Amino acid sequence: MRMEAGVVTGKRAVPPLWYPVVALALSFVLSIIFLDISLSLLHGNPASALSSLTPFELGMNEVGLWVVFVGSAALAAKVYFGERFLQAVRWHLKPAVDLPVGVAAGVLAQLVVVPLLYLPVTMEDPAVGRQLSAPAQTIVGIGAGSGIYVVAAILVIGAPVAEEIFFRGLTYRTILGHFTAARPWLRSVLAVGGSSLLFAIAHFEPLQFAGLFVVGCILAILVKVTGRLGTSIVAHASFNLVAVIALAHLR
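^ that's the sequence the OP posted. Answer follows.
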């Protein structure tokens, strides 16, 4: 056996390739259930537009996702990897490295990489820029007054941790483990690209799809290089934090 980017290659069980896909589908179902329960309890009406949600209701919706994200990774650790949960998802943080590298990666991705990616389109039609930020503006807009701190906690703490565990901890490692016979560069391309594709699809934002895919690739590459989630979690949190600060300031 040999170690590549924190993933043991060789004869070790890994989840089937359909496992992350099914888990993602279940997370959407549970998030809807959690949201409907909170809406029914507070308003007696299970139907509501995203823009009209309260921070608590947004949190309930996200918790539904996070329960499956973390739960499916924990189940895979026990049933397939035969490792402790934190070991299976490569949960580890080296503050001296992960904080500066992660912050730099996240900020650059938000302020440089994504804008450059969409520059040809936004130069042709400036209205596209407003459309690109519309989903994030809607979510940040849920946090009125002190509610912005709740929304910020969801986007900067909860989402990065749960999503990195699922997409870069579970999904990346699952794909990598299925192509041990392939050349190392091809294994990396498949794992980085596959986990990033699922990450982009999960956000249901067609216009932002390319940007989400590229950001997912950056986060997956950080995991490949470091062999742990620490850097990618910090980068993801920094990426979201820049958006929250910018959009909150514009309100």
